[in-house]
Amino acid sequence: MSNMFSSLWQYRHFVISSIRNELISRFARSKLGGLWMIISPLAQVAIYALILSNVLAAKLPGIDNQYAYAIYLMSGLLAWTMFCEIISRCLNLFIEQGNLMKKMSFPRITLPSIVVGSCLVNNVLLLVAMLGIFVLLGHDFSIAILWLFPLTLTLVALALGIGLILGVMNVFLRDIGQGVPIILQVWFWFTPIVYPESIIPESYRHLLGLNPLYPLTSAYHQVLVYNVAPSLDGIASIAAIALALLVLSLFMFRRASAEMVDAL
Predict the structure, then answer these.
(1) What is the pLDDT of residues 84-121, one digit of tens each?
(2) What is the pTM of this model?
(3) 3-state SS record for 210-245
(4) Which stretch of DSSP H or E encloses residue 249?
């Protein structure tokens, strides 16, 4: 495992330049450039807010703002967007880079590192845009926003752990690549992002404990919407699960690297 990270450090300039080149090439002929990275999620927020805000705005206690639902929705989507993007890109990462893995000798760990770096850049830009919108909507934020740093690290570890495991398995069983997008759609609607958890009947709320993403989206809401520190109990347990999944995924990735090249 230590050799993997030392190789990643030696190729850090390759990772950084690859992230930069990916972002540049993605919008090379686009006049709006990097704005497209934030237009899509913000458009999704606008659609949901327009359709559902009148229904759900009255059910968001503790927010004295007429745009309460839009603020709540943006905060949850900030977490979900990065989580979903990392998993979706890791899912087909090794299949898409199969020719490169066959023809060149380089540390394979750089591939998911480039994905994570690119997704983090997207997420930071989206966060900056959302904070600007919060200001325009008259919503303040406090020093509790600093909790986004450990929350983001935990979210990345969880998404990368799941994404790498699925990405390795997808090389050998391509049905996984077809099924995961469906599971992500279901997962999205079973996470209180579009709706507050208060509308779920109390007899079913205990089921939220089965959703590993729920404590993280709830923490994002606490930090960005209610300006309070998140509950450490739920975050600590999810951080432990994320770390375990990340270690397992790196172990699988290291053991299966040679076999993946043959399968591709």
Answers:
(1) 999 999 999 988 887 777 777 777 888 899 999 999 98
(2) 0.88
(3) HCCCHHHHHHHHHHHCCCCCCCHHHHHHHHHHHHHH
(4) helix 232-263
